[in-house]
Amino acid sequence: MADQPExxxxxxIGGGPGGYAAALYGAGLGLNIxxxxxxxxxxxxxxxxxxxxxxxxxxxxxxxxxxxxxEFGITTSEPxxxxxxxxxRKQKVVDQLTKGLEGLLKGRKVTxxxxxxxxxxxxxxxxxxxxxxxxxxxxxAVILASGSATRTIPGxxxxxxxxxxxxxxxxxxxxxxxxxxxxxxxxGCEFASMMSDLGTDVTVLEALPKILPGCDEDVTKVVLRSxxxxxxxVRTGVAVTGHDRGEGGTTVSFGDGESLExxxxxxxxxxxxxxxxxxxxxxxxxxxxxxxxxxxxxxxTAEPGVWxxxxxxxxxxxxxxxxxxxxxxxxxxxxxxxxxxDYAAVPWCIYCHPEVAFAGYSESAAKEAGFDVVTSKHxxxxxxxxxxxxxxxxxxxxxxxxQGDGTGGRILGxxxxxxxxxxxxxxxxxxxxxxxxxxxxxRFIQPHPTMSELFGETIMSLTGRxxxx
Length: 469
Hints:
Elements: E1 6-13, H1 17-28, E2 33-37, H2 43-48, H3 50-67, H4 83-107, E3 111-114, E4 116-120, E5 124-128, E6 135-144, E7 148-150, E8 163-164, H5 166-169, E9 178-182, H6 186-197, E10 201-206, H7 217-229, E11 233-236, E12 240-246, E13 249-254, E14 258-262, E15 264-267, E16 271-273, E17 306-308, H8 319-333, E18 348-350, E19 355-360, H9 363-368, E20 373-379, H10 384-389, E21 395-402, E22 408-418, H11 425-433, H12 438-442, H13 453-461
Parallel strand pairs: 1-2, 1-6, 2-3, 6-17, 8-15, 9-10, 9-15, 10-11
Antiparallel strand pairs: 4-5, 5-6, 7-16, 12-13, 13-14, 18-19, 19-22, 20-21, 21-22
């Protein structure tokens, strides 16, 4: 170890979305920043999560489009899938984004150290076990952003062949004929949708009474109908108890003595924070019994000058939440009064088919919170652009506070399911977070013909007036 640590304004442990966002934002404001990453910059999101998963989901979308081309008068032979080409394209996208991110960091003079970073007293960070060798750093401030890893469950040891998590699934050289997805959350539904569209016989096993927890009930119903129509078998309220591996596959046991023979088991039961490798000896940083680092609304830990962000803290495990928390931490480090993230109103996007996007309260959550609500729903079946592209499955639902005359006041939640809704949520998210009213938003003009017209129509109905509904 060097006798004198290298000094920086900020040292960041972790180069995933939260870490690199904090580094870029802080460096852009003139801070001298070091970032420690033991794998590759970009973290899980870029290399084993958001980007590669959505690339495979886009392949599924392209295949559906080609298979349905006859409806548009375009005839072609039956399409076939070359999964090796799919994986090659996925890796090309990942590599291009990685190169671009590395260029941004270098351009802003962020010093990147490759190795495992551990935090010690007096904001000292020791780097070891990587290309940068053994290095000691010290920051006027330190941001912990070490991210997360996939969770597993007892009885399903990951072997990369028959039992996999998202990490291994995204690297497969071929898709299975039959698969069981354990977990019906966002990631599980995305993988189930993708594999089914690409030819795998899929069963989803979910211990909770419903899939997609947190989603509005009307949204979940649309997804379930679509999954059923496409042959995806969804079993809810069932717990898996183990599996018995056989020749080339395994038999999964679940529920009350039921079993299912599959070629692959995808364990998709969430992620856990990677806090155990952070050291933290000699510091006041607190870690709860689930492994999350404890922080306040400005992402400060109990150790002076140390912040924690991203999947390491008990907030929504979303890349864009990590981005936002990185900005909050840097603003606080600069001595400003940061505006904390409103976690109840962050945007959520799920890229299964049909897509799901929402922000704010669902109808049931709003009622549980004590609001007297009024709702409005409009379906894509009558939307001109949806009919043009041939995807009319889905709806837009808006939840608002009920006013004395029965119309909608403040917008509490916007929930969408259907074509391209992940690209349409922006104005709904702004409406919720600006606490706008239905009357205010209803006056905005929606371009025609667009999918987004449905949001405007749904909002307008809450005012007691409408065009088509």
